[in-house]
Amino acid sequence: MTHIYNFSAGPAVLPQEVLKQAAAEMLDWHGSGMSVMEMSHRGPEFISIYRQAVADLRELLAIPANYQVLFLQGGGLGENAIVPMNLLGRCAQPATIDFVLSGSWSGKSIKEAARYASVNVAARPAGDAFTSVPPQESWQLTPGAAYLHICTNETIDGVEYNFVPTVQGDTPLVADMSSHILSRQIDVSKYGVIFAGAQKNIGPAGLTLVIVRDDLLGHALPICPSAFDWKIVADNESMYNTPPTYAIYIAGLVFAHLKRQGGVAAMEQRNIDKARLLYAALDFDDFYANRVAPENRSRMNVPFFLRDESLNETFLAGAKARGLLQLKGHKSVGGMRASIYNAMPTEGVQALVDYLNEFAGR
């Protein structure tokens, strides 16, 4: 049987070890006689799962004590509304939110935030294409902005930040890290809020992770639903409403797996090596093209185009026959995209590289 490698951008590949453990525990978690799917979120069994997941995530990211870890629902798109509803109350109204437009997802964040406040696009690409992060010296930031929002890895466009922005005064830095969290080391203390949909590097769809500094709690607007008020969620250990219990369980297994692999530092080096391998094949000649500036090329999401795009369907059919799945690019940009998250083994990237070379006749 052909070995399958899934390059989907999300929901995405999970570690085989995690899937096997979840399968083994599906009907009876640790002798409880219950599947995790059946447990009360307030029972001691699930509480232990939840608390271990939080502890492991804190260790993996070295999260300072003055930050809360919240497990929510709504995805990254939901957080585009939840963030302003939680942070705008800190400021005199009307407030302004600063954004850096670096790709499709930051564009979605801007559109949603404009429903709640004035939006200042502090920087944007010089042209129509998203191929780099605008250099910080070009940013036109608002004094006293409610916060500065960035998307540190653009899943669709394959653009990744290679620096942590400097903010003005006490303006909080908010980062959407959905598609590269846990793939590289970060200094959490540089950010006021970090959020991420789980379905890339953490677990199944349906879970959203929020890491928020304590002083940013308790400022929700009156229109914010109580289930999305970070202060209420934090005070109730993410159980003010019924949380996505099974997704939290899988996330916990992934966190434990990452620790066994050597933690985030070890994963970062593997991701550097995988990305270098793939980009070298794409750059070998002009048969393929990745249009992102080299310094901002994503290690997680690698879009590319065939020189002759009439070959796209033939390329995809050949890839599928070799067990290389979900390589079609996002509908908004076309071309191809290989997402090589933490759980994608080096062998999978090498299999893709071998096919790229074969298809190009090298």
TrEMBL record:
Pathway: Cofactor biosynthesis; pyridoxine 5'-phosphate biosynthesis; pyridoxine 5'-phosphate from D-erythrose 4-phosphate: step 3/5; Amino-acid biosynthesis; L-serine biosynthesis; L-serine from 3-phospho-D-glycerate: step 2/3. Pyridoxal 5'-phosphate binds at W105, T155, D176, Q199, N241, T242. Keywords: Amino-acid biosynthesis, Aminotransferase, Cytoplasm, Pyridoxal phosphate, Pyridoxine biosynthesis, Serine biosynthesis, Transferase. L-glutamate binds at R42. It is found in: Cytoplasm. It is an enzyme of class 2 (transferase). GO terms for cellular component: cytoplasm. Binds 1 pyridoxal phosphate per subunit. It catalyses: 4-(phosphooxy)-L-threonine + 2-oxoglutarate = (R)-3-hydroxy-2-oxo-4-phosphooxybutanoate + L-glutamate; O-phospho-L-serine + 2-oxoglutarate = 3-phosphooxypyruvate + L-glutamate. One of its GO terms (biological process) is L-serine biosynthetic process. Its EC number is 2.6.1.52. Its cofactor is pyridoxal 5'-phosphate. Pfam families: Aminotran_5. Residues 4-352 form the Aminotransferase class V domain. The modification N6-(pyridoxal phosphate)lysine is found at K200. Belongs to the class-V pyridoxal-phosphate-dependent aminotransferase family. SerC subfamily. Homodimer. This is Phosphoserine aminotransferase.
